[in-house]
Amino acid sequence: MQTTLSEQARLLPRAEEAESILRTCVHCGFCNATCPTYQLLGDELDGPRGRIYLIKQVLEGNEVTQKTQQHLDRCLSCRNCETTCPSGVDYHNLLDIGRAVVDAAVPRSLDQRLLREGLRSVVPNPGLFKALVSSGQMFRALLPNTLQIKLPRRIYPAKPRPVTPHTRQVLILEGCVQPSLSPNTNAATARVLDRLGISVIATREAGCCGAVDYHLDAQAAGLDRARRNIDAWWPSIEKGAEAIVQTASGCGAFIKDYGHLLSTDPVYAEKAKRVSALARDLVEVLRDEPLETLGIHSDQRLAFHCPCTLQHAQKLGGAVEALLTKLGFNLTFVPDAHLCCGSAGTYSLTQPELSRQLRDNKLNALESGHPEVIVTANIGCQSHLDGAGRTPVRHWIELVEAAMPPSNPGVLP
Fold first, then answer.
1. CB atoms inside a 10 Å sphere around CB 155
2. CATH architecture group of domain 295-402
3. What is the pLDDT of residues 313-358, one digit of tens each?
4. Domain 9-105 sits in which CATH superfamily?
5. Which of 101, 197, 281, 400 has an alpha carbon 20 to 30 Å from 220's alpha carbon atom?
6. CB of 274 within 8 A of CB of 226?
7. Domain residues of the chain, as ranges?
């Protein structure tokens, strides 16, 4: 695609990158075939090809309108189009560049500003988020249905974490909302890794990965969070931590992008590159280990929801399914497994109607094989799907841990 950036656009820090991405696109339209919002709305401008054209217009100096912003806002950032694209268009980075320009030019309504600023204040703050979830659970019956469905139907308490030290050590991102919504996920991870001779280092100073700010009109704030995490992890990295493990694929996808997003930062560029290289989704760590030593034999019937951030962003589609099958779990077939569930970070709150339609479609697909439990690899997807009150939804590592035979390692009281 030929394009000529305006003089103003050429001054943008990522102008050269944007132009390069635009010129990669051949406008073939294959991306629309797998775009969830295009399938729902049937509008060219609510598909990747149309959004690329809108961003092209913006960067060439054409008028920026609220309609432009609306079409970009409706994008889930699921990156399904990147998996489909024969030309390898780096769509998500172009979208980030375009959104920043549009958001700077088009003021949002007061209610949208309050919503987005509220989410940025609450979601990345684990303490505040936990307090609000606890209060919500207490007064659930008094809340409107839109808020009730966002609260977990059941919170599985965290089991004790092992304290036996091992030579092999990995860092783990505790996350923002996961400690409140699914506190046993990282505890189960620590217990499974302990059986494999790997100790988990929980670095409390490492907070939100930065994705929430970055995707809610505050890219600079998101990158500042990335820098703080790098500083928090760096001492352990220098001491030989072999990986930074994420149990939420959304966080993992963003951390793996630190190296690219901070590539022009003279202080953090090399450190960010190192952190991204060490970032591993949990399945990447476990699939290379001797899983037979876990002693798991389960024929439980599961449906696996592969999050977009796992299959399209991290290119790990099929990895968890293969691991669970190897461990003996009975996985059902899930039609249209490539499509987004509609969670997409805070999308379920900023675009509730589209999100609900996508969730219901996804649950119909997941439940078509009559599983006992639905498992996934991202807390956002987990809480979003479970909020429908249908088949229970858990993180896959919790079922793996539950299927392990008892052991008597030293644990915290």
1. 15
2. 3-Layer(aba) Sandwich (3.40)
3. 999 999 999 999 999 999 999 999 999 999 999 999 999 999 999 9
4. Alpha-helical ferredoxin (1.10.1060.10)
5. 281
6. no
7. 9-105, 295-402
